[in-house]
Design a protein that fits this description.
Helix content is about 30%, strand content about 25%. By secondary structure, the chain is α/β, with parallel strands linked by helices. The strands form three sheets. Strands 1, 2, 7, 8, 9, 10, 16 and 17 form an eight-stranded mixed sheet that branches. It has a seven-stranded mixed sheet with strand order 5-4-12-13-14-11-15, sandwiched between helices.
Length: about 400
């Protein structure tokens, strides 16, 4: 079979929020962009809970009709699930997006800007500006000036670029169900129990439209697997009552979650990483939608400069190390959380949340204005950096 050859400026591997945003921004700047994704339908195989935090909602033009009701209330539960700590913000803190339609809308926006979209296409690898793609139809060789790895936590593009790769991963699973809407004020319920979610949490997000019931933790510590653990949790999960206690799932989600923080080396002369591939996920909360959008804008600016000037060294300023330092505190807290493996320890730690200092710290994490740092103030000069 004859291989088709395409010549473009940028090949984007992965059509999640990060890849689609980079593609849209670069296409708007006049560059030729091809986005490939192995899914034939972007509304399938969702790997995120779709939680958008206030800072994202304030700074980005997201489709309001695809976002659920605002959530101001967070309820934290100890392993016993008795006597929880409730925190209520005076502002709208979270909204849960319908991620399938949001991805579809993002793809449409990228195409309208001039990017090309090829679904059902699998990235096979490559280097030195030549990349192989399988299906649909004839095999494809893409000759691109740069490649963008937006292909998830276990990025194959990262390997080909010879940059850093995620080493610390959680595995998560979530069921999404329709609910009756009679739950009172929408709430985000978090259960801190290492038996349910080793090293992380189990959760119920009920906004009156949908209930998201999920768990995430280190795969080696799940007894019987993450899906079986989720099923056990769902049977007695907080935040559900009456007919919503055992709702039929309308969607099942799952996948790896990088929690080692933003990787240090996320670019090379041939391209760069964005989103989960770059480790752009909060190491403490595992929230990744805000970081992926902000880092994608940073990436698009670096690529635009490299394409306009013809200087590959422009990508040297796309540096994860300088941004990673902003996550030092959360990385340390993640390491502490990962060591909590017994309910007694979790309960003892939970007692601290009942103190004024503990509640203040929890509010800072859950309701604070800080998410992913603004890259603009942390970009190193091109002359001061060297490829490693």
């Amino acid at each position: 079979m004859i291989t088709q050859v395409r010549h473009i400026d940028v090949l984007v591997v992965g059509a999640g929020l990060a890849g689609l945003r980079v593609a849209k921004l670069l296409a708007e700047a006049g560059h030729s962009v091809l986005v490939i994704d192995r899914r034939r339908d972007l509304a399938t195989s969702i790997r995120t809970t779709g939680i958008f935090v206030r800072r994202t909602l304030d700074d980005y033009d997201l489709p309001d009709d695809l976002l659920g009701p605002a959530i101001r209330r967070v309820v934290l539960y100890p392993p016993s699930m008795r006597d929880p700590v409730e925190l209520v913000s005076e502002r709208d803190e979270y909204r849960v997006g319908e991620m399938g339609p949001i991805y579809t809308a993002g793809a449409r926006a990228a195409v309208d800007a001039g990017a090309e979209m090829l679904l059902g296409a699998r990235y096979l690898g490559g280097s030195d500006g030549e990349y192989q793609v399988a299906g649909p139809g004839r095999p494809l060789t893409v000759r691109a000036r740069f490649v963008v790895g937006a292909d998830g936590a276990r990025s194959r593009v990262a390997r080909d670029l010879r940059v850093d790769r995620n080493a610390h991963l959680l595995v998560g699973a979530e069921d999404v169900s329709e609910v009756s809407g009679s739950v009172g004020s929408p709430a985000f319920h978090c259960v801190l129990d290492p038996r349910l979610a080793p090293g992380y949490i189990a959760w119920v997000i009920n906004d009156g439209r949908h209930a998201h019931v999920g768990t995430a933790g280190y795969s080696r510590q799940f007894h019987g697997g993450v899906r079986q653990t989720l099923n056990r949790f769902a049977a007695n999960a907080p935040g559900l009552s009456g007919p919503d206690r055992s709702p039929a799932a309308v969607e099942r989600r799952g996948g790896p979650i990088p929690v080692g923080g933003l990787l240090r080396r996320i670019s090379s002369p041939e391209g760069l990483l964005v989103g989960d591939a770059a480790g752009a996920v909060s190491p403490l909360t595992a929230g990744g939608l805000d970081p992926c959008l902000r880092l994608s804008g940073y990436a698009a600016a670096a690529l635009d400069e490299a394409l306009r000037t013809g200087k590959r060294e422009a990508l040297r300023g796309y540096d994860g190390g300088s941004l990673r330092r902003k996550f030092t505190g959360r990385l340390l807290m993640r390491q502490v959380l990962a060591q909590v493996r017994h309910p007694f320890v979790a309960s003892a730690g939970f007692a601290a949340l009942r103190t004024p200092l503990g509640r203040a710290a929890a509010r800072r994490v859950l309701f604070g204005d800080h998410s992913f740092p603004d890259p603009a103030g942390h970009v190193k000069s091109v002359e001061s950096l060297h490829w490693k």
